[in-house]
Design goal:
- It is a single chain.
- With 209 residues, the chain is mostly helical.
- The protein has a single domain, classed as Serine Threonine Protein Phosphatase 5, Tetratricopeptide repeat, CATH 1.25.40.
- It is built from nine helices and two strands; from the N terminus they run βαααααβαααα.
- The protein has a two-stranded antiparallel sheet with strand order 1-2.
- It binds adenosine-5'-diphosphate and magnesium ion (MG) (2 copies).
- Keywords: Kinase, Transferase.
Length: 209
């Protein structure tokens, strides 16, 4: 795929919802270790709502904004506003273009990260979803700079997000509920970083990466 149209973006949200549904118990177990054990169910509910809210005939940007709005309204916890903001900011960055090429999607991914950081104030190393999303955006941009196509960029982002999630295991949480545990948050993967890896894996899958 050279670019994403509205149907591709809708398929991305559907695939993300499937991967979240399949890993709901795992995400909830991760959150039980360092939080309150609801991340899987929060996100499963949110992405189901996003799928239900996908517009029939809207450009990619508006499709993401609709998905983000549904996620905010239906996802409990800290992750709802954070994921919702990420999707809405990405959608806004795409504007009303009918097709999104690799460069435009990179801009949207960067905007999503900035939205999460504006809202949650987390930086890399705080053991949050930022530890998956920030390296994903950087890897996407690096791949783009190396001349990779959309699939190559998406694969680089998904791989970096997965590595970023793994890298949260030895971190001590400094943001969100897990930070209340202090040093006891060490030794567990951050659930939001894990789910961010799933959402980017879904992207790589639908563009053929
Ligand atoms: P809650 O903690 O309210 O129960 P969830 O369990 O759904 O919400 O989501 C927890 C995840 O949210 C964490 O694993 C982390 O990745 C993310 N998170 C929490 N606070 C922040 C923040 N300030 N910035 C970025 N991500 C955060
Ligand atoms: Mg939780
Ligand atoms: Mg909660």
């Amino acid at each position: 795929v050279e670019s994403l149209n509205a149907a591709d973006v809708a398929n991305w949200i559907r695939r993300a919802a499937e991967l979240v549904a399949a890993d709901t118990e795992r995400l909830t177990r991760l959150d039980a270790a360092i939080g309150d054990g609801d991340h899987g169910h929060n996100l499963d509910r949110g992405f189901r709502a996003a799928v239900a809210a996908l517009p029939d005939d809207a450009p990619p940007g508006r499709t993401l904004i609709a998905a983000g709005r549904a996620v905010v309204s239906k996802t409990g916890g800290a992750s709802g506003p954070l994921y919702g903001t990420a999707l809405r900011r990405a959608g806004k960055a795409l504007g009303d273009a009918a097709d999104v090429d690799a460069a435009a999607f990179g801009t949207a991914l960067r905007a999503a990260l900035e939205g999460v950081q504006d809202l949650g104030k987390a930086v890399e190393g705080d053991k949050t979803m930022v530890d998956a999303l920030a390296p994903a955006a950087a890897a996407y941009e690096a791949a783009l700079g190396d001349g990779a196509d959309l699939a190559g960029c998406a694969r680089a982002a998904a791989d970096a997000a997965a590595r970023g999630a793994e890298a949260t295991i030895p971190m001590q949480a400094r943001k969100g509920r897990a930070s209340y545990l202090g040093p006891r948050s060490v030794g567990h993967m951050d659930p939001g970083a894990c789910s961010t890896g799933l959402v980017l894996r879904a992207l790589a899958e639908i563009v053929g990466g």
